[in-house]
Amino acid sequence: MTPDHLDATFAALADPTRRAILARLASGEASVMELAEPFAMSQPAISKHLKVLERAGLVWRGRDAQRRPRWLEPQPLAEATEWLERYRRIWERNFKRLDALLDELKTTQKRQVDTLLDEVKAKRKKRGRTRR
Amino acid sequence: MTPDHLDATFAALADPTRRAILARLASGEASVMELAEPFAMSQPAISKHLKVLERAGLVWRGRDAQRRPRWLEPQPLAEATEWLERYRRIWERNFKRLDALLDELKTTQKRQVDTLLDEVKAKRKKRGRTRR
DNA sequence: CACTTATATAACCTATCAGTTATGCAAGCT
DNA sequence: AGCTTGCATAACTGATAGGTTATATAAGTG
Q1: Which nucleotides of strand D lie within 7 A of protein CB?
Q2: Is B112 helix (H, G, I), strand (E, B) or coil?
Q3: How far is the CA of A109 from the C1' of C20 (A)?
Q4: How much is the average pLDDT of A102-122?
């Protein structure tokens, strides 16, 4: 939880491409090519983004033949969440509508989350082996 | 919750000075001079940081004579929390220990946190697996 | 071995960032 | 009116971010 650590985590999250990569990885490991596919961007650009995510500790690099598949490392996200939550709780006292606001945000997205979760489950079953 | 919005929020949070300013504002409004006081940095530098926080919507500018006191605006933080929470929930299913980790993070002090995290890392490494 | 695939790295460009000093301006003070 | 306080803005600077193309490396394939 050093400041540097939080710096790197939040900075990594500040880019929409990187957030999309994390979202993709939430449903399982992926190679660089697979991660690059949805973006109108060169492969080296994606490799750079991945490097940023790795430096922040959000993502791990594996090896499988020539592939260097990435997966998620949840710990730094937990730290970032913890930081936000701490202040959120303080502000809850000052701003009573915050809780309601957050609930609202959560319910509007509940369906999306559930969909994603089902997706994850399906893929894991399909793969059969638990790489992680 | 447009991407731009999250970009600006996370980018604003990526700087330790700005996080410190937010922490300070969590205990009430403050003038620019008051906010600048703890930092070895010029007043214009602080004004710039405040501008970043305002563009992210995290902070509000009031007016009181010559003072331009700042207040917190909790909504963007709630959105950022929500984003993190969404992925945290997904990962909870994959990494069962995450919840415990987060609880521990919440209740331990800074130094103990670092120790704990090292411990977790060590355990993970020891478990081995194809990672790394 | 030569070829292909997957990825990383280097060199480069431009824009933005985080800081500086100097200056401007509005509001209160005497 | 003139001085002081609080803050913003402009102009500058060096570093970093985010992209590019070209090239290098490493591993599987025929």
Answers
A1: 5-11, 17-22, 26-28
A2: helix
A3: 45
A4: 45
User: Does residue B33 reach within 7 angstroms of strand C, measured from its CB?
Assistant: no
Residues B116-126 have pLDDT tens digits of 333 333 333 33
The answer to whether A104 faces chain B, any CB pair under 8 Å, is no
pTM for the predicted model, two decimal places: 0.76
Q: Which nucleotide is nearest to B65 (CA to C1')?
A: C27
- Residue B77: which residues within 8 A CB-CB, separation 6 or more? A84, A87, A88, A91, B9, B58
Which single residue is written with the structure tokens 């490991």?
A: A29
Tell me what pLDDT residue A20 has: 96
Residue B91 pLDDT? 72
What does the pLDDT look like over A41-86, one tens digit per residue? 999 999 999 999 999 999 999 999 999 999 998 788 888 988 888 8
Output the CA angle A6-B78-B10, nearest 5 degrees. Answer: 35
